[in-house]
Amino acid sequence: MSKFQPLNFYNGGQRSDPISEYTLLPFRFSELDDSRYVVTNIAGEYLIVGKLELHSFANHTLQSTSPLYIDLRARHFLTDAQSQMAPDLLAIKLRTRNERIADFTSLHIFVVTLRCEHSCPYCQVSRQSEDKGTFDMSVAHANASLALAMRSPTKNLKIEFQGGESLLNFELIQHIVEEAMRINKSLPSVKNIGFVIATNLAVVTNEILDFCKLHDVVISTSLDGPKELHNKNRPRSGHDSYQRAIAGIALARDVLGRDKVSALMTTTEVGLNQVEEIIDEYIDQNFNGIFLRPLSPYGFAIKTKFYRAYNTQRWLDFYIKGIEYIIELNRQGVEFREHYAATILTKMLTSSDPGYVDLMSPAGIGIGAVVYNYDGSVYASDEARMLAEMGDHKFKLGHVLENTYEEIFLNETMLEALEDSFAQSAPMCTDCAYEPFCGSDPVFHWGQHGDLVGRKPDSEFCQRNMSIFKYLIDRMESDKFVRKLFMKWAN
Amino acid sequence: MKVTLQFDTEIYSCLAIEKACYRLSDVLAGVVKKVGNQYSVEITFTGKEKSEEGIQSTLSRLKNEILDQNLREKIKAETESTRNLILAYAFSRTGLIANLNTTATNE
After folding, report:
1. DSSP reduced 3-state for A114
2. Most buried in the list A27, A76, A406, B50, measured by CB within 10 Å?
3. Cβ–Cβ gap B72/A26 under 8 Å
């Protein structure tokens, strides 16, 4: 008697016919190019399949000895006599991917002032230059906002201070940080609270940074690229925005440590031809990555026509040129990453969801992030308050002094937007293989189309993200080095 | 310019044709009617491309998209019970369903 099973055992138990009986598991497919589809299972794992092969698979005529069959079984696209556990495993992966939803709101943004000493023409929050009394958040509003934030069921709370220029109201930041720490000590279950100050660093001082060091507050700043580009994008009196940002980054790193300071850039038309120079600037300043970010259609970016200065395709050309440059840098031994791609790759290549608000389904508004505006109004997202400064209060959830936690977070507008933002049930998204990597942005679509779902064939959000998904997958499939690099970014 | 395409109701689903028209709604508008055992789709081209070559290319995209959508419908129907089973299991121990029941009872 043989010690080993005969070959046909491994062929799905068939005696002579290599086509075994298999059951399809739920999956979606979308075209990658003329000859290939991307297929994703219910947990978001993907495979590339030839068009003819997909039809063969769906029609139950795929041979069980083919490499594709083995891959499809391993990634839970089918179940057969040898893989009965697949539905259970898929359920566990799906639950892991969605576990963040149960945490509810973890990011709480406090707009401590709308005043700013910069006058950036692309400013998306419509900053103000005067009247401290009108555009600064009051202590009463801050306390009421904090009380709401501390009621969030999440164990991990992030409080982010934004502006205007948030450091122009640093006294209030100090108060909120200290008060949050005091309240936290009295909670039956202590939370892990992280603090972030979004600042251009132009007015940062040693005293401010000493306070940050004491309370483990991290800094998120703006750096648009080389000196000339940065100063053109971000004018201020003295024409020294870049010099102040660079000096501020050095000082903040000195006091807080290198890993406590991050930077964001915004793409303007004048920067479209400078992606390599922008990346070089980040490397020169010793950052380990960059977030290549398009302008959003809010605030002065709309008023000054900066938003319409370039279309989605031009930005995509800029973005892809940037990623190609970063790949080459890595090939030469320079470790550097692009953060938006890394976020998407985490969704593509792991079972976890990084919780990036724009790429969440249901949408991240309210349940991923919430904004307490300087005047006590509560908005469902940062973009929602930007829209409000343009006169559209669609996503106002209430007021910190007038509404309860329940009234704010069960607000009809928010529930409607959340219900409509399940990408799984939106037209076109419901059949899209890229949906597990994507999200829903009801505020963007409301602002652009006057509709929470938006018309996907005309949606810039859809065009931009679909192009990036296809590009990243195609790049991984065609280059082993890139696949290894992207795996590193994802984990 | 208008073009009418016919699809056998035994082979194609109306939903698949409607979804395909929606996906290409940036370049065409489609109206679906049932005439006997055929779906009749009246297509008006709304995109910038009006040349004969461009229109034929759009029609080819539409036909391929209808084939894809038809296959999607088939897969969706075949995997429906498994999909529901996985979803039910995935969210069965999160507490979310219990909370919903409690809310419903309180109301």
Report:
1. coil
2. A27
3. no
Give the three-state DSSP class for A136: strand
Domain residue limits, chain B: 2-79
CA angle (A340 as vertex; A302, A450 as ends), nearest 5: 35
Question: Taking CB atoms and an 8 Å limit, are B22 and A457 in contact across chains?
Answer: yes
Measure CA of the first residue to CA of the last residue in chain B; give whole Å: 56
B63 at the A interface (CB within 8 A)? Answer: no
Report how far residue B15's alpha carbon sits from residue A167's, in angstroms, rounded to the nearest whole number. 55
pLDDT in tens, chain A (491 residues): 456 666 666 655 554 455 668 999 999 999 999 999 999 999 999 999 999 999 999 999 999 999 999 999 999 999 998 888 888 888 888 888 888 777 788 899 999 999 999 988 888 767 776 666 789 999 999 999 999 999 988 899 999 999 999 999 999 999 999 999 999 999 999 999 999 999 999 999 999 999 999 999 999 999 999 999 999 999 999 999 999 999 999 999 999 999 999 999 999 999 999 999 999 999 999 999 999 998 887 776 777 777 677 889 999 999 999 999 999 999 999 999 999 999 999 999 998 888 888 888 877 777 888 999 999 999 988 888 888 888 899 899 999 999 999 999 888 888 888 887 777 778 888 899 999 999 888 888 888 888 888 888 888 999 999 999 999 999 999 999 999 999 999 99
A439 phi/psi in degrees, rounded to 5: -160, -165
Mark yes or no for CB contact B94/A29 under 8 Å: no
Question: How does DSSP assign A445-488, residue by residue?
Answer: HHHHHSSSS--GGG-HHHHHHHHHHHHHHHHHHH-HHHHHHHHH
Q: CB B76: neighbour CB atoms within 10 A?
A: 16
The 3-state secondary structure of A197-256 reads EECCCCCCCHHHHHHHHHHCEEEEEECCCCHHHHHHHCCECCCCHHHHHHHHHHHHHHHH
Q: Find, in chain B, the residue whose alpha carbon is nearest to that of A57.
A: B75
Question: Does the ipTM surpass 0.95?
Answer: no
CA atoms within 13 A on the CB side of A483: 7
CB pairs under 8 A between A and B: 72
CB contact under 8 A, A458 and B26: yes
Q: What topology is assigned to B2-79 in CATH?
A: Alpha-Beta Plaits (3.30.70)
CB distance A298 to A387 below 8 Å: yes
Across chain B, which distance is largest between two alpha carbons, in Å? 64
Domains of chain A: 7-13+23-97 (no CATH), 104-414 (3.20.20.70)
